[in-house]
Amino acid sequence: RYRRSYLHRPPPLAADDPAGPLVDDTLLRLPDAARAALRPDAESLADVVERLRPFWAATRTTLAHGEAVLVVGHGNSLRALSVLVDDLTPEEVQDLDVPTGHPLVHRFTTGPDGALAAEVRGGTYLDAHGAEHAITDLRARGGT
User: Fold this and answer.
1) At 114, is the pLDDT very low, low, confident or very high (cuts 50, 70, 90)?
2) What CA–CA distances, in Å, run from 108 to 84, 89, 132, 141?
3) Residue 26 resides in a domain
4) DSSP for 82-133?
5) 9-51 tens-digit pLDDT
6) Residue 52 contacts residue 84 (beta carbons within 8 Å)
7) Who's near 88: CB < 8 A, 6+ residues apart?
8) Is residue 33 a contact partner of residue 51, using CB atoms and an 8 Å limit?
9) Where in the sequence is the domain holding 107, given as residue range(s)?
10) pLDDT value at 136 more than 90
C-alpha cells in the first residue's frame, strides 16, 4: 500500500533498526536545503510531490526560456515529478511505473499567454519498445 499509494506514509524506522545508520549517512550527504525539506519521519508520494513543487516551478521557468533540462532521478521521485509535469491525479499516478534507465522526453510549447504546455502528456520514451518491456517486468515485481 505504501509503495503504490499517493497519501499513505510508511511507518518510520524504529530507533534500533539496523538500517538507521545507513539512512542517516545517506541523508547527511544531501545538500542542506534538500535535507531541510524532508519530513523527519517518512514521506508519502504526496509529500514528495510537495517537496518537488519548487523544483518544478524553477524548471518551468527555464523551459519557458527555451532551454533544455535533463532530470535524473529514481522511480518514486520521477513518479512525483510526473504528477506536476503531466498534472496527474492520485489515481493516475498510482498506476504509473517508471522503468529504470529508459529516457523519457517531454517537449513543451509556450502559448501566446506565456503558459507552458506539454506536447504529449506523459512524454515519449526514446526506446518505446524497451521501456514497455521494462514496465511489464516492473509490474510483475510489484511496480515502481
Assistant:
1) confident
2) 14, 20, 23, 33
3) no
4) HHHHTT--HHHHHT----TT--EE--EEE-TTS-EEESSTT-EETTHHHHHH
5) 989 889 999 999 998 898 889 888 888 888 878 899 999 999 9
6) yes
7) 82, 96
8) no
9) 44-140
10) yes
Query: 117 has which bridge partners?
Result: 109
Residue 37: predicted pLDDT: 82
Number of domains in the chain: 1
Residue (of 74, 70, 46) closest to 59 by Cα position:
70
Read off the CATH number of the domain in which 90 is found. Answer: 3.40.50.1240
Query: Cβ contacts of residue 118 below 8 Å, gap of 6+?
Result: 85, 86, 106, 107, 108
Q: Locate 113 and state its grid cell.
A: 499567454
Cross-strand partners of 118: 108
Residue 1 has pLDDT above 90, yes or no: no
| Half-sphere exposure (Cβ direction) of 44: Cα atoms closer than 13 Å | 12
Task: Give this prediction's pTM.
Answer: 0.85
Any domain includes 36 = no
